[in-house]
Write a structure and sequence with these properties.
The complex is a heterotrimer of chains A (375), B (362) and C (159). Chain A is of the alpha+beta class. In chain A, 48% of the residues lie in helices and 13% in strands. In chain A, α5 runs antiparallel to α6 (134-155), α5 runs antiparallel to α15 (356-365) and α6 runs antiparallel to α7 (177-200). In chain B, α7 runs antiparallel to α10 (212-229). The two termini of chain B are 19 Å apart. Chain C folds into 2 domains: 2-34; 56-154, Alpha-Beta Plaits. In chain C, β3 and β4 (98-108) form a beta hairpin. The chains are: A alpha+beta (375), B mainly alpha (362), C alpha+beta (159). Chain A binds chain C through residues 64, 67-68, 70-72, 135, 142, 145, 149, 152-157, 160, 162, 165, 170-171, 174, 194, 197-199, 201-204, 206, 299, and chain C through 13-15, 17-18, 20-21, 23-25, 36, 49-50, 52-54, 78, 80, 113-117, 120-121, 129. Bound molecules: iron/sulfur cluster (2 copies). One iron/sulfur cluster (SF4) binds at residues 69-75, 86, 122, 124, 126-127 of chain C. One iron/sulfur cluster binds next to α3 of chain C.
């Protein structure tokens, strides 16, 4: 028992000392523990210890039916719950070869993108806060509120939606949906300019973020750093482009790429992605076709025997679900490749020889969501 | 001159004389000191509490919020409630901490800020001591606070605290220079270091207008450097909430924490009032040369209103900084000081000296 | 010379960006109309949740104290967290047939994740969401609710 509790600590050189960032620390955004070896203020080594909120979601999936699994995936990356749900739905639909109605595809794409904006807005808020600009936090949350209202009106929950079901949606969207989304887009275009004015252009912010935590393209590929963090290093890894699902092959959007690989480019990728997401929604929102909100599905879903993999682009990167089915109503094995967990791996590499203040900025720029790491 | 209608000199002097008539000199001095001490203590507490409230309201409005609004009308008693809460909290004893230093550190911080108020003139004839070298004294005394911060960080037996304290040391030692030099620019213009005379000289126009561009540059530098010196705003590295949890006062609780908290706000008040006194004319009303009628109207506004108005303005500026900008990193902080503020400051003094020499100022 | 001019242009652009940032916060400071905070306990009367808001699971009863639940137990099997317990009885109808009726439909609010599967899968649409949200209680047993009201019966035409 003792060995388990006393986790191995790294060896220590002269003039170095350890510092425990977390499990309770303002900038780890949850219960992540980073054992940082410092020399003065300079980070020499870093060892993440995760698992503080491990809930065994993968194991719980094994006793749940496919409809029930949806509500567990909400709780992994709670900031992009729709996108997580989407992955499970696509997996089941793909395995059963069900064609979902056009209307569902449209609505799912719009909601995914709204969710992505909301997630990026929260990330922006906490990023500003980590750098010491507390006001950003409130602006981001204030604007995100509008998206949550859209969600709440349509299906009654704000964070953990469980709105998608294999084959379609729980219920149809609210009649106000289109109007609200359009209002929001108008509102948000204005507010994103504010984001740029208060943070993106600020000289202190530029100093803090440019050239900090450079993640080269090779390193990003080697470590599998996907999502905005990987695209900030110039790695075109957008699943929406590479393996399009839902409406992504029909809409026009730019895969935001930047090549510097530093904190600033990761930041700008996310800001630009918010704009791209709004473009996607604008293309879809007026043409949502009439129709059913769900395909006909059997009440008990049994996947044919076999192995399945489905990936989607969540707000943090590639979310992959690997599933083994033996033909029963629940999977034999469900494995989630969560982006935050993979992205966390590179934190040690890119934050070495940086200041402890940079470590905070780098950690924030990777946009880690702790429940997504621990599952 | 007209602004003497609100002169406090005779008032304070009559108290002084009365005391000396009644009592032997030693006791008279003692009573006088006690009275002044008590008055300042009261003043200190009120200003501190009010500033905490003001800061919360200001930041709330900047963030589209309402701020405290539960205790009392508009939440004005919120800080008093908080203060009572802090008073009743447990003083946590830290294992392996240096107990003596740990306990005296908050007092050093608060005494340093307390001492500085003594030299500040609130109105004509209303100040505790009018040193010949008042500005010098204030600079010297305000920098004492860093000792308390260093001790707090060192004795807490906490690595976060230590990092915070070391940062604070590096920061205050560097920014002392800029504060001093920017005040020196005005001293060159004023030709005196006595606060009362500095104010007196601004009866024909505030120094920030009198001294052309160099005075304005000095004002901006003073604002930046004094924000840094008070560990506030974008320069709050010593506390750096997102990096060091709470920096040097991580381990403090209860009333000892309240001391640090109060001292931070009082330091802000002090630097703001120095800025107001030296650059914006202190209690001196706003005068435009030649407009007699206008000047006369201005004279009827009491000097205390002028003084607190100007100080409040500077404090508001500093709050505005804090709630807008992200925090600097320690090396950038030092770069800003040594590569930008200091050279500009030195050149600025030269220009100012030249202007004074040629008599180009108003 | 180049680095010399860069020094001053840096200062200029730096200051400019800072002032732009300050203009944003300054604008909000002087426009209190944009405050978004809701005064929660005071606005309780006016506060209206969206009609689809998932606050609390209820079983709607009509004016005759009748509900639609047949006691089939489908919601119980579909609930991923075991927050629903359906206790049903068998009664003998006058014509001799046996019929299952609901005795107690127990709902544990404390274990519910608001996934809405029960509402969706109920064949007779007996469940619905309520918009209440003030769920805080001092005793957690209060979070266990019996959804069918005492003395209630099933609406006739539901099988
Ligand atoms: S909402 Fe979900 S968790 Fe809650 S009772 Fe219904 S099925 Fe169970
Ligand atoms: S609520 Fe619906 S699903 Fe549950 S027992 Fe009653 S009828 Fe069956």
């Amino acid at each position: 028992m003792k060995e388990i509790i006393n986790l191995p600590v790294q060896s220590i050189e002269e003039e170095e000392y350890h510092i425990n960032m977390g499990p309770q620390h303002p900038s780890t955004h949850g219960v992540l523990r980073l054992v940082v070896t410092l020399q003065g203020e300079i980070v020499k080594k870093l060892q993440p210890h995760c698992g503080y909120i491990h809930r065994g979601i993968e194991k719980m999936c094994e006793k749940d039916t496919y409809q029930q699994i949806i509500h567990l995936t909400d709780r992994m990356d709670y900031l992009s719950a729709h996108i997580n749900n989407h992955a499970v739905c696509l997996l089941v639909e793909g395995a059963l070869e069900v064609e979902v109605p056009e209307r569902v595809k449209y609505i799912r794409t719009i909601l995914d993108e709204l969710n992505r904006i909301a997630s990026h807005q929260l990330w922006w808020s906490s990023f500003g806060m980590d750098l010491g600009g507390l006001t950003c936090f409130f602006y981001g949350l204030r604007d995100r509120e509008h998206i949550l209202d859209i969600f709440e009106e349509s299906f009654g929950s704000r964070l953990l939606h469980s709105y998608y079901t294999p084959g379609g949606l729980m219920r149809d969207v609210h009649p106000n949906f289109q109007k609200r989304v359009k209002d929001f887009l108008k509102y948000n275009r204005k507010k994103i300019k504010d984001y740029d004015r208060i943070l993106s252009g600020n000289v202190i912010f530029l100093e803090r973020s440019k050239g900090v935590g450079v993640l080269s393209k090779e390193l990003a590929i080697n470590y599998g750093v996907t999502g905005p963090s990987g695209r900030g290093s110039g790695w075109a890894c957008d699943i929406r482009k590479k393996h399009p699902y839902a409406m992504y092959d029909k809409v026009e959007f730019r895969e935001v790429l930047r090549h510097e690989g530093d904190t600033y480019s990761r930041y700008m990728v996310r800001i630009d992605e918010m704009r791209e997401s709004m473009n996607i929604i604008e293309q879809l929102i007026d043409n949502i076709p009439e129709g059913d909100f769900s395909a006909k599905m059997k009440p008990i879903i049994r996947l044919p025997e076999g192995e399945y993999y489905q990936c989607v682009e969540s707000a943090r990167g590639e979310l992959g679900i690997y599933c083994i089915s033996d033909g029963n109503k629940n999977p034999v094995r469900m494995k989630f490749r969560t982006p935050s967990f993979v992205n966390l791996g590179v934190l040690d590499k890119i934050s070495r020889e940086m200041k402890i203040a940079d470590l905070v900025a780098i950690g924030a720029s990777l946009d880690l969501v702790i429940p997504d790491i621990d599952r | 001159m007209a602004f003497n209608i609100y002169d406090f000199t005779s008032f304070t002097q009559s108290i002084d004389q009365a005391l000396y008539e009644w009592l032997p000199p030693f006791w008279a001095l003692l009573v006088e000191m006690t009275i002044i001490g008590l008055v300042f203590l009261l003043f200190y507490a009120i200003v501190g509490l009010f500033l905490v409230y003001a800061e919360r309201k200001v930041c709330a409005f900047m963030q589209n919020r309402v701020g405290p609004n539960r205790v009392g009308p508009y939440g004005v008693f919120q800080t008093i409630a908080d203060f009572i809460k802090l008073l009743m909290k447990e003083l946590v004893y830290i294992k392996n901490s240096d107990k003596l230093l740990f306990n005296i550190a908050p007092f050093i911080v608060i005494i340093a800020s307390f001492m500085a108020i003594a030299a500040i003139p609130f109105a004509k004839g209303l100040h505790a001591i009018d040193f010949d070298i008042g500005i010098m004294y204030v600079i010297a005394v305000t920098s004492l606070g860093v000792i308390g911060v260093l001790l707090a960080g060192w004795s807490s037996n906490n690595k976060y605290s230590l990092i915070g304290a070391m940062r604070s040391g590096a920061q205050i030692i560097s920014y002392e220079l800029s504060v001093g030099l920017s005040l020196l620019t005005i001293i060159v213009l004023a030709g005196t270091m006595q606060f009362s005379q500095v104010v007196e000289m601004q009866s024909t126009g505030w120094f920030i207008f009198k001294g052309h561009i160099p005075a304005f540059i000095a004002f901006v530098i003073f604002l930046i450097a004094s924000t840094a010196e008070t560990n506030r705003g974008p320069f709050d590295l010593a506390e750096a909430e997102s990096e060091l949890t709470a920096g040097f006062h991580t381990e403090y609780s209860g009333i000892k924490f309240a001391f640090f908290f109060l001292a931070e706000y009082m330091n802000m008040f002090i630097v703001a009032s120095i800025a107001a006194t030296v650059f914006l004319g202190g209690w001196m009303p706003f005068h435009i040369y030649g407009w007699e009628g206008f000047n006369h109207v201005m004279d009827f506004i009491p000097p205390l209103v002028w003084y607190f108005g100007k100080t409040a303005f500077v404090i508001w500026l500093m709050m505005w900084f804090k709630w807008t900008f992200p925090r600097l990193r320690i090396d950038q902080l030092l770069t800003l000081e040594w590569k930008y503020l200091l050279p500009i400051n030195l050149v600025n003094i030269l220009i100012m000296a030249f202007i004074v020499l040629m008599g180009w100022h108003f | 010379m180049n680095s010399f001019t860069k020094y001053f242009t840096d200062i200029f652009w730096g200051f400019r960006s800072l002032l732009i940032g300050m203009s944003v916060t300054g604008r909000y400071f002087f426009s209190p109309g944009q405050i978004v905070t809701q005064q929660y306990p005071e606005n309780r009367k006016k506060l209206k949740m969206f009609e689809r808001f998932k606050g609390d699971l209820i079983m709607p009863h009509d004016e005759h104290n009748q509900h639609r639940c047949t006691g089939c137990g489908i919601c119980e099997t579909n609930c991923p967290n075991g927050s629903i317990e359906v206790i049903s009885d068998r009664i003998e109808l006058p014509d001799g047939k046996k019929k299952r009726i609901i005795d107690k439909h127990i709902y544990h609010l404390s274990m519910c994740t608001f996934c809405s599967l029960c509402v969706k899968t109920c064949p007779s649409e007996a469940l619905d969401w309520d918009q209440t949200f003030e769920h805080a209680v001092f005793d957690r047993t209060k979070l266990t609710k019996i959804l069918n009201k005492p003395g209630s019966s099933i609406i006739k035409d539901i099988e």
